[in-house]
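Quick question, first post here. What does this chain look like in 3D?
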Amino acid sequence: MAPADIKKEGPLYDLPVALGFLLATKQLRAEIGNRLFVGELSLNGSIRPVNGVLPIAIMAKEKNISEIIVPAGNAKEAAIVEGLSVIPTKSLKELALHLTGERKIDPEPPQDMAQIFEPQKYFADMAYIKGQEYAKRALEVAAAGGHNVLLSGPPGSGKTLLARTFPSIMPPLTFDEALEITKIFSIAGKLTRGISLISERPYRAPHHSASAVSLVGGGTFPRPGEISLSHRGVLFLDEFPEFSRNVLENLRQPLEDGMISVSRAQATLSFPARFTLIAAMNPCPCGNATDPEKLCSCTPSGIVKYQRKISGPIFDRIDIHAEVPRMKFEKLAETKVGEESSKIRERVIAARKRQQQRFKNIDGLITNSEMHNQHIKKFCLLGEKEMALLRKAVDSLHLSARAFHRIIKIARTIADLADSDAIEVPHLAEAIQYRQRQV
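> Answer (accepted):
Ran it through. Tokens below.
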């Protein structure tokens, strides 16, 4: 099958090959016209669903193909693409009758976007997390600007719970974001049959024993891993230092570029990986190094060894470092309910709208965390007082050039949350405090 230099894999070629054979042997007399066929053919002639139909449908639209014939189980997925006639087929015989005009198949109706993007209900709400206002604020800033966060604190302080509530304060997906996510899940075979479009931001939480292939992606013919499956969503890595160092080093490229390249003998593919990383760790093996009331049983060398499981470059790529202390009884026993996630989400959405307006003429740029140096120079101008404060922070904390730019991007996000056009000293001071952790 042409082009011969591209490896063909998967059962989606079954239907077009069978149809081509029937037409060539004149067992079927029909005009194919401007149509595209895709589907797996079983031995009894029924047509079964396949992976990756949404990207195929988008490609068909780009090439001005008017009609696409897909398995009935993939019809809702393909019907997301506007201006494309989607014909759901259940069997080869049914398709043959459709092509000859004896029994036409009705096209799949367009999907109702309002129904797909109904407001989501979250079971975890920040209102029920006792205390931890500093960590909640850090997560609010992260959600508003798409920044990565490291939560550090003793066992049982609430790090995992905070991470689980994070999706409840993130802004709703746009159609373009939902389309990106659905394409990835479709290619990976993770899209639930009958679901046309993923309307919730992904939340992926792989175990610390996960392999590099499961995190990055791979296989004989590369498939997306957890990094790409969390695109435009959350990648939560609990027990951060317990992950293999080789596995964590694979995060360097996606944290910097928002892409991950997977190279194999058969092919080299690049998958989008613009996620928000939420990492959680104990300060030491026993977890009590930062607890003022509990004795740490670890040796100084043991603590250093534990923390050095995570390399400096990985730490440097994490924007926000937030301490999550153990809560005292008085705080835990409080009956007062904290601020609801919906209220925090309103501020996050408002900040995202400011960014949307700011980057409206720049393709591919959605959040402040994605800005490059040229964007920082244009959108993050600092006054004399702000520059003086930043100079002191760089000198005293010995910050790298990457950390310097990330502080400015965080300050831009904090200013957006405050509905301020300019980055002021309080915004910059708050951004600097999130970079104080040194390993």
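Residues 28 and 96 are 7 Å apart (CA to CA).
DSSP finds 20 helices and 14 strands in the chain.
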